[in-house]
Amino acid sequence: MLIIKNLSFRYPNPRVELFAHLSATIPPGVTLVQGGDGRGKSTLLRLMAGALAADAGQLQLNGVSLAEQPEAYRRQLFWMEPRSTDFDQLTPLQYFETVRGKYSSFDAGLTGPLVEGLGLEPHIDKQLFMLSTGSKRKVWLAAAFASGAALLLLDEPFAALDAPSIAFVKEQLQAISTQAGRAAVIADYAAPSGVTLAGVIDLGD
Q1: Taking the domains of the chain in order of start, what are their residue ranges?
Q2: Which tens digit of pLDDT belongs to each residue from 62-94?
Q3: Per CATH, which fold does 28-51+71-202 belong to?
Q4: Band of the pLDDT at 13, cuts 50, 70, 90?
Q5: Higher pLDDT, 188 or 38
């Protein structure tokens, strides 16, 4: 689904090379981007999302080039910076509406079960700035799973989550692992138990 060709990236200040001619193929299912601190897990997801510009290389999602058709490329994927404050004045339901407007395959019928499964009911009428880190992450995850996007890019999806929510997210990822035409890339330190992986990109320790 996603083809990465000769991707290179350096941090501008200090000028440190993170990736040099990285190539990979992301198939349908769940792919793990694995590595230690500072190895570039989150940066690689930002590059895949088109939220960060690479120094060189090509990205193609379902045949659509990020360089040639950036908007069409981005419409196929869901990415949210976990620490984003862009939607802090919205409630979760209002945020879901903004996501619904972006993705034609958004499934509004899933938001209720996702809110319940992630334990978000007590927070559904609160503005996002009022939520804990874990609860905000749950809102991003619920939106991702409901979006219907072909590719979900999830940075440390289990961070700051309670045990029942971790189990629920694993169930959603396992469901994606069986769906043709959908993929999720998760960045984390290790493979999640109970989730069948289609591939691993190991950035080292």
Answers
A1: 28-51+71-202
A2: 999 999 999 999 999 999 999 999 999 999 999
A3: Rossmann fold (3.40.50)
A4: confident
A5: 188
